[in-house]
Write a structure and sequence with these properties.
This protein is an alpha+beta fold. It has a single domain, classed as OB fold (Dihydrolipoamide Acetyltransferase, E2P) (Beta Barrel). It is built from one helix and six strands, in the order H-E-E-E-E-E-E. Strands 1, 2, 3, 4, 5 and 6 form a six-stranded antiparallel sheet that branches. The radius of gyration is 20 Å and the shape is elongated.
Length: about 110
């Protein structure tokens, strides 16, 4: 009898976790920016992260220019333009190098 209740509770827990994950999509916790890298990132080594920290002017999807601090696990090339998806925790989760060099930081 106890094993049956344990199985039912485990199934309810799994179903609840699936519903919670589907109710909070990953993309809502990230924003897309266009940035032109003007200087190399500073190397950063923390407990769970090895990568680069950048301080750059970025353009939002609405065209507003803002200064952001963000972290990337890969080096971003200087004098190149990128479209970045940055999470709320300032981590870059997606990078696309743009062939049309749009100097966002010169605006």
């Amino acid at each position: 009898m106890k094993k049956g209740w344990f199985g039912v509770l485990a199934a309810i827990f799994v179903i609840t976790m699936v519903i919670v994950e589907l109710a909070s999509p990953f993309a809502q916790a990230a924003d897309t920016y266009t940035v032109s890298i003007t200087k190399p990132g500073e190397k950063v080594t923390k407990a769970n992260f090895k990568g680069y920290e950048f301080h750059e002017k970025c353009e939002t999807a609405t065209g507003k220019t803002i200064k952001l601090r963000f972290y990337s696990d890969k080096p971003l090339k200087e004098d190149k333009a990128y479209r970045l998806m940055i999470q709320d925790n300032e981590m870059v989760i997606q990078t696309k190098e743009l062939s049309d060099v749009k100097l966002v930081s010169s605006k």
